[in-house]
């Protein structure tokens, strides 16, 4: 579905997308994982013909993105980070407008729009202006608008950012349904759990470069099977606790900016008990401890040497 080689985008002297190779197979969900500013949106916009490619090449279903942009646009749907719907129109009017812009007759645009409103559980809100929609409803309508022509490839740019858990779950179900119906999806996200739940394969991007690729399980396996998260008691010596945890596990703990907690990768779950016993032996009090699968921060720390919250230059004109 997507074949890209040496994909590069420059903003001044900054290489926002730096020599990235990608292969996306038909019928899969391909996740693009990275923090804000990593280059995810810029890369998607290049593939979707919304930004020119500075160097490298890309093909969508065999069509050259540089020279056959019109053909590419007939095959793709794009849902960006921010809703493209018109606040002054109703949901039904928005879908009708998108259908007309894509060459459908008025009757056909209304028919498809009504079907999509039903599919996305928006029929009761069909005649309400978008200004009265919740964030989750707007995101669902925005995705519906990108499906007017049932594109073979759908670009979803952080589709669940800002959604509450219920709407996020609904969006996940919608994405699974689209794949079951034969769509190919390229999904950008900041969340490992989202990539884990939806993506067949994931590419990790940091500061414009591809740093890893594989299934979610393969990425997590690179940094161990689980992590111990420890919240220190007020006044406890967190620095000493971190040093002890590092000695026991032979791994470098991640310490958030608050400095009163840390997490450390475990080679096996029994190491959690070893760390906690060592803390107890040194009279270092804790208020909470949990063992969990690796988080996005831990994957990023292992792959890049910094967490996903590390600052990234704000150099991209079109987002992250």
What does this structure look like?
- By secondary structure, the protein is α/β, with parallel strands linked by helices.
- The protein is built from eleven helices and 13 strands.
- α3 crosses α4 (106-119) and α9 (238-249) packs across α10 (271-281).
- The protein starts with a strand and ends in a 16-residue tail after the last helix.
What is the strand and helix layout of this fold?
Layout: E1 2-11, E2 14-24, E3 29-33, H1 40-47, E4 55-60, E5 63-64, H2 69-73, E6 76-79, H3 91-101, H4 106-119, H5 135-145, E7 153-157, H6 165-180, E8 184-189, H7 192-198, E9 201-206, E10 209-214, H8 216-221, E11 226-232, H9 238-249, E12 261-266, H10 271-281, E13 286-292, H11 296-304
Parallel strand pairs: 3-8, 3-9, 6-7, 7-8
Antiparallel strand pairs: 1-2, 1-4, 4-5, 9-10, 11-12, 11-13
Helix pairs in contact: 3-4, 9-10
List keywords for this structure.
single chain, alpha/beta, six-stranded mixed sheet, 13 strands, 34% helix, 25% strand, disordered C terminus
Which overall shape is indicated by the principal axes computed on the Cα atoms? globular
Give the number of DSSP strands. Answer: 13
Which percent range fits the helix content?
Answer: 25-40%
Task: State the order of secondary-structure elements, H for helix, E for strand.
Answer: EEEHEEHEHHHEHEHEEHEHEHEH
């Amino acid at each position: 579905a997507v074949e890209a080689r040496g994909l590069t985008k420059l903003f001044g002297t900054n290489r926002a997308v730096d020599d990235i190779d990608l292969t996306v197979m038909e019928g899969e969900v391909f996740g693009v994982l990275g923090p804000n500013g990593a280059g995810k949106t810029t890369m998607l916009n290049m593939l979707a013909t919304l930004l020119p490619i500075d160097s490298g090449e890309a093909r969508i279903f065999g069509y050259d993105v540089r020279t056959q942009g019109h053909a590419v646009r007939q095959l793709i749907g794009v849902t960006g980070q921010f809703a493209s719907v018109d606040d002054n129109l109703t949901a039904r009017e928005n879908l009708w407008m998108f259908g007309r812009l894509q060459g459908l007759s008025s009757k056909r645009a209304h028919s498809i729009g009504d079907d999509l409103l039903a599919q996305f559980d928006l029929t009761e809100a069909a005649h309400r202006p978008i200004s009265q929609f919740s964030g989750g409803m707007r995101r669902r309508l925005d995705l519906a608008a990108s499906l007017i022509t049932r594109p073979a490839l759908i670009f979803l740019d952080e589709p669940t950012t800002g959604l509450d858990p219920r709407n996020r779950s609904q969006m996940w179900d919608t994405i699974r349904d689209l794949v079951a119906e034969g769509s190919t999806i390229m999904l950008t996200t900041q969340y490992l759990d989202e990539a884990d739940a939806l993506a067949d394969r994931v590419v990790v991007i940091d500061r414009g470069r591809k740093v890893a690729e594989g299934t979610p399980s393969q990425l997590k396996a690179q940094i161990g099977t689980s992590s111990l998260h420890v919240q220190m008691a007020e006044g406890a010596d967190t620095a000493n606790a971190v040093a002890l945890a590092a000695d026991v596990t032979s791994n470098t703990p991640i310490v958030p900016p608050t400095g009163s907690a840390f997490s450390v990768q475990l080679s096996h779950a029994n190491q959690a008990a070893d760390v906690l016993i060592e803390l107890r032996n040194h009279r270092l009090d804790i208020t909470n401890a949990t063992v969990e699968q690796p988080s996005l921060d831990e994957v990023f720390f292992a792959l890049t040497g910094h967490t996903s919250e590390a600052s990234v230059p704000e150099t991209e004109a079109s987002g992250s």
